[in-house]
Amino acid sequence: MPTHSDPRSPLKDKVALVAGATRGGGRGIAVQLGAVGATVYVTGRTTRERRSEYDRAETIEETAELVTAAGGTGIAVPTDHLVPDQVRALTERIDAGHGRLDVLVNDVWGGEHLFAWNKPVWEHDLDNGLRLLRLGVETHAITSHFALPLLIRNRGGLVVEMTDGTTEYNATRYRNSYFYDLAKNTVLRTAFVLGHELAPHGGTAVALTPGWMRSEMMLDAFGVTEDTWRDALAAEPHFGISESPSYVGRAVAALAADPDVARWNGTSLSSGQLAQVYGFTDLDGSRPDAWRYLVEVQEAGKPADASGYR
């Protein structure tokens, strides 16, 4: 990949904020934006001094270091995106340091331990469900409120709302639980609304979903690493369609570098879909198309076989 000093780096003069970049897709996005030269502010609640309730080892400082190692400039800012004053201070810091914001990625989630699979709303823990909605929806609203005035200062700004599932897929399917479904589909609608509000200012908003992503938590669940992930196929053959966090990261980098990105305004997109348009690959050189696979193979009850889907 080109380095930060390489004039071929399409985002070498651009500033990005990846909200929720401690691990998973947020980290993958931040690193891939760095790989094309961007200055990337990365936020989250887990630092080397303090952990969030996830109680995991990944930190925003590590993410910032990976961004810089990839060729960009990584800047870690501990931020709880449910606290307006902290988000206001974050955007003021970006403004003071750079006077611009070109890319905002709303990837705050934090709900993995808060929803119960296939449990109706009247049986679901209410406090956990409401906390999930705050983390998965309210954080996005707070971040947009404070960050978008800086983003629209220059035309061509991009907002990426990270979610699970496309509008087309989610429209006819129940997604795990009342609270999970509501959170992920609200983010899809958020991208549509922001697209309407940003368009007069020359901005673009999209919703983006990865496929079956091999996040750190997912790898741990299967007892594998990124190098050995195929060992999990014995337990879950459909895991063969999975993708690394770098894949959706490359999708965001491609969108951010596209001078015609406004063609996507207000729409929902997937990493596999954009790989076919922009020509990027996952780390192994493949182009997994998880959502098409899910419909045509897994939901159709066919034997697991990713041939022709990656």
In words, what does this structure look like?
There is one protein chain. The N terminus is likely disordered. A seven-stranded parallel sheet has the order 3-2-1-4-5-6-7, with helices on both faces. It has about 300 residues and is an alpha/beta fold. Helix 4 runs parallel beside helix 6. It is globular, with a radius of gyration of 18 Å. The protein has one domain: Rossmann fold, CATH 3.40.50. The relative contact order is 0.12.
Give a short overview.
The chain has ten helices and seven strands.
Count of extended strands: 7
Mean pLDDT: 96
Q: Which architecture name does CATH use?
A: 3-Layer(aba) Sandwich
Which stretches are low in confidence, meaning pLDDT under 50 for 5 or more residues running?
A: 1-5
- Described by the principal axes of the CA atoms, the overall outline is globular
The CATH C-level name is Alpha Beta
Tell me the strand order in the biggest sheet: 3-2-1-4-5-6-7
Distance between the termini: 22 Å
Computed over alpha carbons, the radius of gyration is 18 Å
Helix share of residues? 40-55%
Largest sheet: 7 strands, parallel
CATH topology: Rossmann fold
Count of helical stretches: 10
Structural class: alpha/beta
List keywords for this structure.
310 residues; alpha/beta; Rossmann fold; seven-stranded parallel sheet; 10 helices; 7 strands; globular
